[in-house]
Amino acid sequence: MPGRLVVFEGVEGAGKTTQLERLALRLGRHGAQVRMLREPGGTPVGDEIRALLLRPSAQIPPRTEALLFMASRAALVGEQVRPALARGDIVLLDRFFLSTYAYQVGGRGLPEDEVRGANSFATGGLVPDVTVLLTLPVQVGLERAAQRGASDRMEQAERAFHERVEAAFAVFAEPAWQASHAECGAVVAVPAAGTADEVEERVWRVVAARCPEVQA
Fold it and tell me: Where does 4-210 sit in CATH, by number?
């Protein structure tokens, strides 16, 4: 049986990594083979690109930034994601191309049609089974992110940029937007407020509904 691709998305500090790790443990207890990956990164070239993209001192123009994300994505899909799916694994991915739509299109203002075309080339048309969109007010997320320590280049962007990203993610949760963006698959908004346990239960209900072979 082919594997499943479950993506976690959201603003900075929404708790993606925490909930991805919790879901991986829960799926493991149910006997699933799980592969956890993140963007950018996950391959030798992707890790180099990640270091550059997140370096606070780096000066990267928007188009260059978008293409760097795409290059890392192409390597990750080809070297890690597709082989894992072919083995029947459940791939849990911390960010994917919905982030590019939010950050580079919504946040940076790049042309959507050009970004969509580049993304299709980078992914080879790979569509997630479900994207869990953790929703949280941007100010709360940035405060959470600041508590983790030094901010990376993306986190250090001006507040207006993060507000545009938040607004873009809100649009992605709308059925009309998803209907016109079939390459994104199902995007399900999950409130990220509350305790980690509460959010985990919300995430589990979404994933169990979309992946029928996983039983609660």
Answer: 3.40.50.300
